[in-house]
Design the sequence.
């Protein structure tokens, strides 16, 4: 009777050990699945962040090249405006010079007319 109880006890322990081993394996598999699911979920976010970063880098490079082109074009416009301003100043200088010459010519013309009138008056009394 005692030996049958021991055998029965060993059989129950064996069954319990098998159940525990099965549950342990199931728990390990579930933990592994959970870990894989969490890692996959995190990897999706990381992959999306990586793709977004690549897009941002590409757009930053494009923006930089556009800014350089804009800067170059702006410098060309500034050079053009400076040369136009210089040309306008030269025209203003030429106009001023022409006015001075015109005034000098009028003065000379007036002086010559006066001299001619005086000469005429002296020769035709």
Sequence:
């Amino acid at each position: 009777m005692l030996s049958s109880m021991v055998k029965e006890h060993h059989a129950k322990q064996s069954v319990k050990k098998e159940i525990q081993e099965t549950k342990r394996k199931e728990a390990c598999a579930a933990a592994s699945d959970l870990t894989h699911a969490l890692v996959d979920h995190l990897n999706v976010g990381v992959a999306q962040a990586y793709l977004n970063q690549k897009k941002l880098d590409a757009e930053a490079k494009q923006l930089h090249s556009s800014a350089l082109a804009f800067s170059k074009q702006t410098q060309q416009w500034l050079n053009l405006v400076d040369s136009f301003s210089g040309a306008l100043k030269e025209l203003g200088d030429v106009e001023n010079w022409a006015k001075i010459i015109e005034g000098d010519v009028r003065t000379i013309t007036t002086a010559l007319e006066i001299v001619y009138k005086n000469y005429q008056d002296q020769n035709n009394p």
